[in-house]
Specification:
The protein has 295 residues and is mainly alpha-helical. It has 17 helices and no strands.
Length: 295
């Protein structure tokens, strides 16, 4: 080994050194794989990048043969810079679980982030990425990666998933209900009939005391609700919000009138409209309303 090492390091050129290494590896791989790996590793730190990749590929086979997981991960990473998109993806897909299995979760997370940039639509990968992000507390980095992908004009279906994940990150991990609401508004823009998102936005806007936004969400809920009793309750909540907290009597009247359209005999809504029209001195509207009350 000493003689071989000296000859390699004193070789006239890198190509000659590489040939010698390859011959030596081929010769001993079957009998002394550990010695072959030792020879290649010595040279790996003394060569240029182009040759380093070739040596790394030789080492990959040796380390697989001897079960050297940590060193295998190192030589796989050495191949990343020269790999094409598909090759890089395959390398990263192997590296992520390798690093995690070795307890190197921060490294696994960063490798998963790199893989996400190449494969943003891979839902299983996103699940692994979010799990590793939670294990390492890398929530801001994860949110940044999702925003970067969205800025690259992600496909609408992918965008919905990313915005949903961002809403959860901001609400549960980053303590930013304002950003969570913005993310959910993006989901609602892409999927305007999603009643669950509307309900989530309602909770957030109540928490934030964002009353005009809450009123807008109530109206959206009313439009989506098909059950008469639930729709009536939402309209009452909207009317109360508009009258008592927003000081918008006209909007409150409109909400009560929608109740009366649904249930013409609702005496509570009838009386509320009368009272609000009197307060606003809307005499013509009041006269029409009194005719309806008389009927």
């Amino acid at each position: 080994w000493q003689v071989f090492r000296d000859r390699v390091l004193l070789a006239a050129g890198l190509a000659t050194a590489l040939i010698g290494i390859m011959l030596w590896a081929s010769h001993v791989r079957g009998r002394r794989a550990d010695l072959s790996a030792q020879a290649l590793t010595v040279v790996l730190d003394n060569i240029e990048e182009a040759v380093r990749v070739e040596v790394s590929r030789l080492l990959e086979g040796v380390y697989r043969a001897v079960g050297e997981t940590r060193r295998l991960a190192d030589v796989l990473e050495a191949q990343l810079a020269a790999a094409d998109v598909q090759g890089r993806g395959n390398l990263l897909a192997e590296l992520v679980p390798l690093r995690e299995a070795m307890g190197q979760k921060p490294q696994a997370f960063m490798l998963a982030l790199r893989l996400f940039r190449d494969r943003p639509g891979d839902e299983a990968l996103r699940g692994d990425l979010e799990r590793l992000g939670a294990d390492t507390g890398s929530f801001e980095e994860l949110a940044g990666a999702y925003h970067d992908e969205l800025e690259r004009n992600a496909h609408p279906e992918l965008a919905v998933g990313l915005w949903r994940s961002l809403a959860q990150l901001y609400a549960e991990r980053l303590g930013s209900p304002e950003q969570a609401a913005k993310a959910l508004e993006e989901v609602l823009r892409l999927e305007p009939q999603d009643a669950r998102v509307v309900e989530q936005l309602g909770r957030l806007y109540r928490r934030l005391n964002a009353l005009p936004d809450l009123a807008r969400i109530y109206r959206k809920q009313v439009a989506l609700e098909t059950r008469p009793s639930a729709r009536r309750n939402l309209l009452y909540e909207l009317a109360t919000l508009c009258e008592e907290r927003l000081g918008d009597g006209a909007a409150a009247v409109e909400a009560y009138r929608q109740i009366l359209t649904q249930e013409p005999s609702d005496s509570t809504a009838m009386a509320a409209v009368h009272r609000l029209l009197v307060a606003a001195e809307r005499w013509d509207d009041l006269a029409q309303h009194m005719e309806r009350e008389a009927q």
